[in-house]
Amino acid sequence: MAPQIKYTKIFIDNQWVDAKSGKTFDTYNPHDESVIAKVAEGDKADIDLAVAAAKRAFKRNSEWRRLEASQRGKLLFKFADLIERDFEYLAELESYNNGMVRSMATRFISLAADQVRYIASLADKIEGSTMPLGGQNFSYTLKQPVGVCGLILPWNVPLLMFLSKVTTALAAGCTAVVKPAEQTPLTALALAALLVEAGIPAGVVNVVPGFGETAGVALTHHKDVAKISFTGSLEVGKLIQQAAGANNLKRVTLELGGKSPLVIMDDADLAVAVQYAAFGVFTHQGQICIAASRLYVQSGIYDAFVQAAAQVAKSLKIGNPADETTQHGPQVDKIMLEKILGYIEKGKQEGARLVTGGKRVGNKGYYIEPTVFADVKDDMTIAKEEIFGPVQSILKFETLDEVIERANETNYGLAAGIITTNLNNAMKFSEQVEAGTVWVNTYLTMRPQTPFGGFKESGIGREYGPQCVDQYLEVKTVTMALS
Ligand code: NAP
Ligand code: MG
User: Fold this and answer.
1) Cβ < 6 Å from ligand 1: which residues?
2) What is the rounded distance in angstroms from the CA atom of residue 347 to the CA atom of residue 374?
3) Angle 88-89-92 from CA coordinates, rounded to 5°
4) Would you say the C-alpha torsion 390, 447, 259, 305 has a positive or negative sign?
5) The pLDDT value given to residue 108
6) Whose C-alpha lies nearest to ligand 1, atom 15?
């Protein structure tokens, strides 16, 4: 049965309102392309109202600014409890609007409440330092919230993205305007309702569903927005960086995807390596920024590996994501479906060997077969561009030095992995590969304790980890004369 849709309006000042223009847009179920709901379509006028509300909530003596740090943390702990209470519903809604398979939505949302608690626990540990200058002066630093934050979300993991950005901004004491992705506005709105229940003061968090070209642009150009945190494509990330620079020099955190190399050494256990490689690239139909989309396999096990990889890809159970046993659901929308099929065609044209998959499944819903290409070369399009789909590209290599060199030949640097039983290989690779996260004999393992973000064009700044709140703080130096 379809989950009940409770919230479809814009959320400003703890109120649900229609768009000023009166416009709405359709949101879909990617499983069967049916319209789930009509959602209020915010644009510049609504962003202006939301930013004004967030600015009021951030005023010097506002309820939010006067709240003790430990109370901010407590409010977020209550929020985490409510997420846990509504766990089933949120998982169902995420799956319904995004196509995420239920087992993954369930796993993610069970991690989500702990993620909120981890970040919430940092709210009362924001500390400056003291610097005795010698002589007549003494200095100390204060860390203070940067102000109104614009949080722009992608569609791939909507609920977790909302939580990581919103919770961190709130733990720091900021206020926020959230722009969810056009494809997946529903869980963001459901979470806004839980924030009200947790006791958030009006205006502290506002959510404006709408389009990037209108609502998103208005937010990134707004003079009262002090910071933007964005996750999405490199192309839009660059636009955001420009908008921030051209206006009021907003602080910017960007998480922009990748083309992450996973290296399988000859000494690896083949059966284990094949499973990690498939998990790394087929999880969520390949719609994750850290997907292992360049799979380097050493020559000694290459042929056996390719064969086994095809078997694993073929074995994945494709179907309605609402079904608990489904392993492979639909892509998020028609645009992504066509884009990915285009990459698969390009792979064939440029001479990669299609081992399995490569086709759309059925003609309703945005399903693509888990696809494996072998004999991929570094200069092929499928080895260079982020596909964001279920396409495993296998490349052959001879030596560790060679593969490190090739792994680093990319503008991206989000994640990397190595499967090996040799400690020297693991140490050398981890030290020399250019990536914000490196996995050894595992892949996709993430917890809120570990900083996450990219080298090179994969982004700027880090989310999660014990320092995550710093991304939403300014450092103020106070110097006093002692006499
Ligand atoms: P996107 O265009 O980068 O969108 C991400 C968010 O930014 C959405 O909320 C989007 O609004 C908004 N946006 C778009 N243009 C904007 C602008 N000029 N100013 C401010 N905000 C703007 O990503 P997408 O269209 O969803 O997907 C395109 C590609 O991005 C995918 O093929 C994939 O490669 C990559 N991607 C990467 C990640 C990641 O985790 N790194 C996540 C999602 C997608 P709309 O919803 O209206 O577009
Ligand atoms: Mg878009």
Assistant:
1) 152-156, 179, 181-182, 211-213, 216-217, 220, 231-233, 236, 239-240, 255-257, 289, 386, 388
2) 10
3) 85
4) negative
5) 87
6) 212
For residue 243, give the ligand 1 atom closest to its CA: 19
**Residue 266 CB: number of other CB atoms within 10 A?**
17
- Euclidean distance between the first and the last CA atom of the chain, given in angstroms as a whole number: 73
**Domain total in the chain:** 2
Rounded CA gap, 26 and 33, in Å?
Answer: 11
Return d(Cα 242, Cα 246) in angstroms, integer. 6
Q: Tell me which of 151, 159, 183, 236 to substitute to probe ligand 1's pocket, judged by most ligand atoms within 8 Å of the beta carbon.
A: 236
Q: Which ligand is nearest to the CA of 339?
A: 1
Please check whether residues 171 and 309 belong to one and the same domain.
no
Asked if 180 and 223 sit in the same domain, the reply is: yes
Q: Are residues 252 and 265 in the same domain?
A: no
* Angstrom distance (rounded) from CA 474 to CA 146: 6
Q: Same domain for 69 and 171?
A: yes
**pLDDT band for position 247 (50/70/90)?**
confident
CATH no. for residue 415? 3.40.309.10
Query: Which range of residues forms the domain containing residue 118?
Result: 10-256
419-434 tens-digit pLDDT: 999 999 999 999 999 9
Q: Which of 74, 79, 94, 224 is nearest to 153 (CA)?
A: 94
